[in-house]
Amino acid sequence: MRSTTRLGWPAAHRALALLLLALGMLALLGPVQASAAEDDPYKIAGNVQFEGEAIEGVTITVDGPGGAQVVETGPDGRWNVGVPEAAEYTVTLDVDTLPEGVTLDDPEDDSPETKEVTPNVPFAPKAVNFFIGEGDRESTAFGAQLAQRLVQGVNFGLMLGLAAVGLSLVYGTTGISNFAHGEMVTFGAVMALWIGGTAFIGASLWIALPAAILISGLFGLLMDVVIWRPLRHRSVGVVQLMIVSIGLSLAIRYLFQYFIGGGTEQLPGSSPERIDIVGPIRMTKVDLISMGIAIAVIVAFALWLLYSRLGKATRAISDNPGLAAASGIDVDFVVRVVWVVAAALAGLAGILYAYYRPGIKWDMGTQVLLLMFAAVTLGGLGTAFGALIGALIIGIIVETSSLFIPADLRFASALAILIIILLVRPQGILGRRERIG
Amino acid sequence: MSSDAAVPRAKSTGLHQGEAAPGCAKVDPILVADGVRRTFGGMTAVDVEHVEIPRGAITALIGPNGAGKTTFFNLLTGFDTPDAGTWSFEGRSLAGVPAYKVARMGLVRTFQLTKALGLLTVLENMKLGATGQRGERFFPSLLPSIWRGQDDSIEERAHELLARFKLDTKAADYAASLSGGQRKLLEMARALMSEPKLVMLDEPMAGVNPALTQSLLDHILGLKDQGMTVLFVEHDMHMVRHIADWVVVMAEGKIVAEGDPSSVMADPAVIDAYLGAHQDVDLGVVTGRVAGTSPQQADAVRDQIEAEALEELEQEENR
Amino acid sequence: MDWSQILNQSASSIISTTTIAYALAAVGLGVHFGQAGLLNMGVAGFMAVGAYGYAISILSFGFPWWLAALTALFASVVFALILGIPTLRLRGDYLAIVTIAAAEVLRLLLLTVAFDDVTGSADGLFGFSGSFQDSNPFPDGEYGFGPWQFNETTLWPVVVGVFLLALSVLLVWALMRSPWGRVLRGIREDEDAVRALGKNVFAYKMQALVLGGVIIAAGGIVYTLGSNASPGVYVTSLTFFVYTIVLLGGAATIFGPVLGSVLFWVLQYFLSNLMPALVDAGVLPFMTANQAGMVRFILVGVGLMLLVVFMPQGIMGNKKEMTFVK
Prior knowledge:
heterotrimer; A: about 425 residues; alpha+beta; Immunoglobulin-like; ABC transporter involved in vitamin B12 uptake, BtuC; 2 domains; four-stranded antiparallel beta sheet; three-stranded mixed beta sheet; elongated; C: about 325 residues; mainly alpha; two-stranded antiparallel ribbon; 14 helices; 2 strands; about 70% helix; LivM-like (chain C); branched-chain amino acid transmembrane transporter activity (chain C)
C-alpha cells in the first residue's frame, strides 16, 4: 500500500555498494572495451522505473558473444548497449544498486535479476524489462532497517492512534462497535482533497486542512443528530447498532466512490524527498510534520480527557453509564461531544494517512478499520489510552513485520497477532479482567 | 398448599452442632466452603473462611449491598472462579467444575435479574430445564424417533409444574410477555424441572409484584416440603424471618454471623453490619397475614417498600 | 430503454449459482446469528475456505471434484474449531473481532505472492472444473424456459447447488425443531440461564459454529463449482452483504435466508441493469454510467440500516420472535 519511491539511501551502504560495483567493473572492464563498440549493429535497451519514477545509477550487465558489458542507467532511468551479433545475451541487473526499499519482484520468475534476450533486427533496440517492486534486500544492514522501520511504525501507529482513540471512546460511551469509523477517516481526507486539491477549490493547505478537520467534526455531529441519538432513544440493542454502523459504512463508502471514483487522488504538498534524521533513519518532511501534529493532538486530547470537566464526564460514562447519569452528568450531551471529537480526530487521521499511503482512495479508511479495531481490542475495549498503546504496537508490528515476511502480508501479521493476544489476555493490555466475562 | 399457608409452619431446628457462630459445623451439611476468596482488582469481594449449609432446610444468606452475596453464589455455582479456596457439594469437590456440571450434580440456581428466555415460550422454557434429554445431542436430534417419547413425558411433567405455579394458562406464550413476578415463578419452576437437590435462589423477591410475594414464599416453603434444600439471598429481613430456618450473615465479603432467624436478628453484630431498612416492620404486615392491620396500612407499607426495592434494583441493574 | 431485457435479466438471477451460493451462506449465517446468537463476522472467510479448499484440492492434489468438495467442507470444520475454541468462552464481540480478523488474514494469505504456486495470488485459481463437468449427467443441449435458460455446463452446477441448498435447509429445519434447537435458541436468549440448567453451552455454540460454517463453506464451493476462485470476492463487504440477506429474509427463520438471497440478487440485477439504462436514456443527467453502477451498493447500505432498525425480524420473521444477542 505504501508506495513512495525511496530514492535516498544511507551513505554507508552507498559506499559499500559503490565498492562492490567498482570491484565488478574491474573484473569486467577489460573484455568490454576489447570487443563491443557504439556502432555495433544490434542494440539491447531498457528503462528502469519504479511506479513511474526513473531510477538512476542502476548497474546492468550484458553478457554474450563479444564479451560482457556494464552500463548504468541514466537520470531518465534508461540504458542501452550495442552488441555485435544476433545471438542470445544474458542481461543481469545488479540488485545491490537499486535504492532501498525497492527490489526485483517477478512472481513468474525464479531469478528475476537475469533475462535472456536475442536481438534480431539491426538497430531496432531489443527491450528488456525488469519487474521492479517494493521490498527489501538483505544487503542493507538489518539493524539500520529495523531502526528505520521502527520509526515508520511509530509514525503509522500515532496516526492509527488518532483514529483508534475516537473509536474506543465511542465504544466506551455508547457500546457501538462502529464499523463506519473507517469512513470517518476517509471523510477527512476527501474533505481536504475537495478544499485543498488543485483540481477542486484549491485553497491553501493552511485553510484546507483545519477546515477539513472542522467539517469532519460537524459530520460526527450530523451522524449523532440524524442516526445515533434517535437510536439511543429507541434503546436499540448494541448488536443492532453495530449492524446499523455496517450499513452506514457501506453507504458512505460507496458514496465516496460515487463522487471521487475508484482511482487514487493526491493531496498537494506530498513529496517523497527524504532527509537524514539520526543515523540510518531518513524521513520525509511530511512524515516529520505528521508525527509532530499527531503527538501534539494526542497530548492535548489526553489532557482534555484527564483534566477537563467534559473529559472526566466521558471517562465516567465509559466506566459506568448508569452511575454517571445518576450523578447528574448529561449523558446525551457528552456522547454528542464524543461523536464530534471522534469524528474530528478520525478526519485528522485520514489527512495524515492520505500523506502516508500516499493518496486518497474511496476505501482507504476501510483498509485500516480492522487495524483500528485491533488497536482498540489490544489496548482493552473502551479504554482511550489503551487504544493509543494498542495503535503504537499495531503500527510497529505492521512496519517491522515486512522485514521477516512478505510485505503484502504485513496487515495480516498485525491481525494474526491480535488473535493470538486475545487468546492469552482477552481483556487487552489495559482492560480489566471483569469486563470480558 | 396455599390453604395452609396462613398457618406458620414449623421451622427446622437442631441443624447445627455446638454454638451458633460463624462457620459452625452442621449436623448434615450439603454444601461446605473453605477459605473461598475472590478479589476484583485489589478489592476483596468474598473472603469466606468456613461455612456449611444444612441439608433439608431453608437457609438465608443476608447482608447489606455489596456484601458479596451474589459473588459468593457465582463462586459456589461455577459461574465465577475464586482466587483461592475449596468447596464441595455432597462431599464432592466443586473446584474447577464448570457451571453446567455443577447444575447436573443437582445444584441449581436462579438469578437476581430474572433470566427467563424471553423469545422461547413458557413451555419451551420449562422443557429446557429437564436434564438428560436424548434429543439435545446433535446427531440423535435429527431422528425424532429417538427423543419423541422422552420429550412427551418431559412435556407432561412441565405442564404439571406449570399448573402448580399457576402458569398453565401461559404455556404457549412467549416468556417475554410475563410479568416480573411470573418470570420469577417460571425461573423457579424451570429449575425444578431438573429435580435438583439444592436450589439456590438469588433475591427471589426482587422486583416482584406484592400480590405474588405470598405465592412465591409458599413455593419456597414447598421446595423444602419436597425434600429439597434451599439457599437464598435476600435483602428483605422480614421474608427471611418468615421462612428461613437458618440465617448466614455476610458483610464486606466475610461471614459475620450465623444462627436461627430470631437470634441472628437480635445479634448486635448483625444490626451493626446490616442496617437494612424496615427492620421494624413485620413481613406479616406487608403480606396482610397479620391480623389487626388495616388493608390501607398494609398497602402503604407495601408501596413504600416496593418503591425502595425498585430503586435498589435499578441501581443494581445499572451497575 | 429495453424493459424486457432488464426484467429478463433480473428474473434470471432467481436461479443462478450466485444466488444459490449466497443463499447457502445465508442459511449458515442464520444458524450462527439468527438461531445461536453467534456474531460471525467472518462469512467471507468460511466461503473462501470452501472455494479455495475445493480448487486447491483439485489443482494441487488432483482430487476428483466430490472428494475436493468434502475436503473443503472438512477444512471449514477445522476453521470453525480454530476460531471457536479460543473465543466461544468469551463475550460475543470477541467472536466478531476474531472472525472478521481471521477472514481478513485468510484473504491476505490467498492474495500474497508468497504462495502464488498454490493460491494463484491476485489472479486466483481457474481451470479446475474439468472433473466436475466430466461427471455431468446432462446430455448436451438447451434446458429451461422463459428467462431461465441453461446449457448442460451451466445447468449442472445449478442442480448441485439447489440440491445442497435443499439439503441444508432440511438439516437446519430438522435440528431447530428438536430439543437441540431449543437449547440453541435458549443460548441465544441468555447463555447463563441455559448453563444454570446443566447444558454445556460451549459445546452447543461450537456445534452451531461448525454446522453453520460447513453450510457457508458449501456456499463457497457452489460459487466456484463451474467457474474460478478469486480472492477479490472474499472481502468483508461479502460478509456484510450476507448479513443484509439474512436480515432481509428473517434471521431466526429457516427459509428466510433463502428468500432474502433471491430478493437481494433480483434487486441487485434489476438496479445494475436499470440505472445505466436510465443514464443512457438521459433520465439522470447528473450521473455518469459509472456512478449509476454505484447506486445499488449505496442502497444496500441504506437498506441494511433501515432493515435492522425498523424490521429486525425480516420478511418471514415474527415481530416478537427476532431479538439480538445482548
